[in-house]
């Protein structure tokens, strides 16, 4: 049997990088995709440049078969999504698992929140799932144990103040997950989501925490805040999320769920 193939979006760093590494270690061949270059946002985003070096140490392809490849991707652009899927098929010949992980955050009171930020958040976090799924489904249909895993959030299960755009986009991600799970079940394609709690990536350390604290205090404040909010007492890690993706990729009778990985912070 040939090794299964995963396409992971937003794979340059943080949760997506951990997912790509874990999938490689588990024997998947991985197309790791992220933005082509620096993008203007309220904190620096990741980019695909240099990503192959980050992943090559964990890539253990059999014989001459490549086990990791990298491509540029902007999940808000239709042609970019179809290109990323086409490159995956060209490189590996199949696609078994699509991980829609790319995401952006912004926060602030609704009355001063910019329309441009609102649109961008929905374009990446919600519409990106639609565009990537549309590109991938024809190939998933012919693959063994095909599935899609979307990175939603606990913010997609309960609204919090000053996060209307982000929460709305993640509620949408869960709704899309459930709808596609029903629609694609007859094709044998499973669709699930994971809902991370608090992971110390750029989203938290460069955006959500600095709004409340001086830069030098961010790391300590992040740990304190996590301990205060999370019953199990520690923030989540990218590896926690990657293990959940691996479980969902393998769980042949599980579809339509939004699996919370949040140390007990959210229990619905
Ligand atoms: P991150 O900012 O480190 O990673 C997000 C990645 O997505 C970046 O590499 C970025 O370049 C990429 N990206 C952004 N826009 C893109 C686009 N248009 N096309 C392609 N790639 C794009 O943050 P992270 O915490 O690793 O976030 C990963 C996912 O986890 C996101 O969907 C996020 O909403 C979700 N999430 C994170 C947390 C957390 O606590 N960090 C909690 C819940 C959910």
What name does the CATH topology carry? Rossmann fold
The CATH class assignment is: Alpha Beta
Number of contiguous helices: 8
| Unreliable residue stretches | none
Radius of gyration: 18 Å
Give the structure's gist in a few sentences.
By secondary structure, this protein is α/β, with parallel strands linked by helices. It has eight helices and seven strands; from the N terminus they run βαβαβαβαβαβαααβ. A seven-stranded parallel β-sheet has the order 3-2-1-4-5-6-7, sandwiched between helices.
Task: Characterise the protein shown here.
- By secondary structure, this protein is α/β, with parallel strands linked by helices.
- The protein has one domain: 3-Layer(aba) Sandwich (Rossmann fold).
- 42% of the residues lie in helices and 13% in strands.
- The chain contains eight helices and seven strands; from the N terminus they run E-H-E-H-E-H-E-H-E-H-E-H-H-H-E.
- It has a seven-stranded parallel sheet, with helices on both faces.
- Helix 5 links the parallel strand 5 and strand 6.
- Helix 1 crosses helix 8, helix 3 runs parallel beside helix 4 and helix 4 runs parallel beside helix 5.
- It is globular and about 50 Å long.
- It starts with a strand and ends in a 7-residue tail after the last strand.
- The mean pLDDT is 94.
- The site of nicotinamide-adenine-dinucleotide (NAD) has 29 residues, from helix 1 and helix 6.
Strand-helix topology:
Blueprint: E1 5-9, H1 14-25, E2 29-34, H2 51-56, E3 68-72, H3 78-92, E4 97-100, H4 115-140, E5 147-151, H5 164-184, E6 190-196, H6 202-208, H7 218-229, H8 238-250, E7 258-261
Helix pairs in contact: 1-8, 3-4, 4-5
The structure holds nicotinamide-adenine-dinucleotide.
């Amino acid at each position: 049997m040939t090794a299964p193939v995963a396409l992971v979006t937003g794979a340059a760093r943080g949760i997506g990088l951990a997912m790509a590494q874990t999938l490689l270690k588990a024997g998947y061949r991985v197309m790791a995709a992220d933005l082509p270059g620096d993008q203007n946002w309220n904190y620096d985003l990741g980019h695909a440049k240099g990503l192959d070096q980050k992943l090559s140490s964990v890539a253990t392809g059999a014989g001459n078969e490549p086990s990791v490849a990298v491509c540029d991707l902007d999940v808000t652009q239709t042609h970019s999504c179809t290109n990323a899927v086409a490159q995956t098929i060209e490189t590996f010949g199949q696609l078994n698992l699509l991980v829609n992980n790319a995401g952006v955050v912004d926060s602030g009171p609704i009355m001063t929140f910019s329309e441009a930020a609102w649109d961008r958040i929905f374009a990446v976090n919600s519409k990106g799932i639609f565009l990537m799924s549309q590109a991938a489904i024809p190939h998933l249909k012919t693959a063994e144990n095909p599935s899609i895993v979307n990175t939603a959030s606990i913010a997609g299960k309960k609204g919090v103040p000053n996060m209307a755009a982000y929460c709305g986009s993640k509620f949408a991600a869960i709704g899309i997950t459930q709808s596609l799970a029903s629609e694609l079940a007859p094709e044998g394609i499973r669709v699930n989501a994971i809902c991370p709690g608090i992971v110390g990536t750029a989203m938290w350390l460069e955006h959500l925490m600095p709004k409340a604290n001086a830069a030098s205090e961010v790391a300590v404040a992040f740990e304190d805040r996590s301990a205060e909010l999370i019953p199990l007492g520690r923030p989540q890690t990218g590896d926690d999320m990657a293990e959940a993706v691996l479980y969902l990729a393998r769980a042949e009778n599980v579809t339509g769920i939004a699996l919370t990985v949040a140390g007990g912070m959210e229990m619905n």
